[in-house]
Design goal:
The complex is a heterodimer. Chain A is an alpha/beta fold. In chain A, about 50% of the residues lie in helices and about 15% in strands. Chain A has one domain (about 5-85). In chain A, the strands form 2 sheets. Chain A has a 3-stranded parallel beta sheet. Chain A has a two-stranded parallel sheet with strand order 2-4. In chain B, a hairpin with a 5-residue loop joins strand 4 (about 135-145) and strand 5 (about 150-170). Classes of the chains: A alpha/beta, B alpha+beta.
Chain lengths: ~90, ~190
């Protein structure tokens, strides 16, 4: 199996990612064995992260296998969003 | 006198939207102090920007930054789209503009799938923690979020949504509390 690495910063020419649409595009256009490289991405919105996690789950991808080079702040944001996705839906 | 920074971004193009949001963020950050100011400002700008992209059906958004004085700065994010009320009504909820803003502030999303709708609720939580203020104008409703419960009022109808933040120039939220807010625990 030959993994292809998607350099997200190169795709969008930005170190900041805000939108759900970008997250959806990135994952949906990837092959199932592609790796998402966040090198150089400094910030994302939590909406981006939420959508990214949704897309990863929808494709049954293992987050730890397909995501690389999250900076510590981004890693913390992914953890926070993953945690709130498990909390009850508000009334 | 400090410069006013205004960025107008095209909604239709995702790459342009991401790029312009980043440029705006880079213009704004140097006006603020605080060890985690970048995380806080990014959250506010990116989250409100995504709301426009997701819900407004507008072709353009305006991101506008104005230092007000030594202590405060205004951050305004607006669009000429359908408004929060129409967005909820299109999703099948029978609400007026004021009720729609209330629902958004409580974390209700117009999206049916998944556990979504944290954006405006979390922005409001951050604003309260910063002792800042948030004003949301959409349709014929306006909400002001400050120290206490949000204040709602009816105003002349207008197209689109404008979100105005008045932020202290020194913004600091300890990391533990900041991430607790993002997790929905505050």
């Amino acid at each position: 199996m030959s993994n292809h690495t998607i350099q997200i910063k190169e795709v969008y020419q930005t170190s900041h990612l805000a939108t759900r649409e970008a997250a959806k595009e990135i994952v949906q256009q990837a092959d199932s064995d592609d790796v998402f490289d966040f090198a150089g991405i400094q910030f994302t919105s939590s909406s981006f992260v939420d959508e990214f996690l949704t897309q990863i789950e929808d494709r049954n991808l293992d987050f730890n296998n397909v995501v690389t080079n999250l900076n510590p702040d981004l890693a913390r944001l992914f953890q926070a969003v993953a945690k709130r996705r498990r909390s009850p839906v508000r009334a | 006198m400090e410069d006013q920074e205004k960025t107008i971004i095209k909604i239709a193009d995702v790459a342009e939207f991401e790029y312009q949001t980043e440029q705006f963020f880079k213009q704004v950050v140097p006006h603020f102090q605080g060890s985690n100011r970048e995380n806080i400002l990014n959250y506010l700008i990116a989250e409100l920007g995504d709301n426009i992209k997701q819900h407004s059906q507008s072709k353009k958004a305006v991101l506008d930054f104005s230092p007000r004085n030594q202590e405060l700065a205004d951050l305004i994010i607006s669009d000429g789209g359908i408004g929060i009320g129409s967005s909820f009504r299109k999703a099948g909820l029978d609400v007026n503009d004021q009720e729609a803003i209330k629902l958004a502030l409580r974390g209700r999303s117009t999206k049916k799938e998944g556990n979504r709708g944290w954006g405006l609720r979390t922005v409001a939580a951050i604003v309260l923690k910063l002792k800042a203020s948030l004003e949301i104008s959409s349709g014929n409703a306006r909400a002001i979020v400050e120290a206490n419960k949000p204040i709602f009022m009816k105003v002349p109808n207008r197209k689109g949504t404008t979100i105005s933040l008045v932020l202290p120039k020194k913004i600091e939220i300890p990391d533990k509390i900041f991430y607790d807010i993002l997790e929905g625990e505050k």
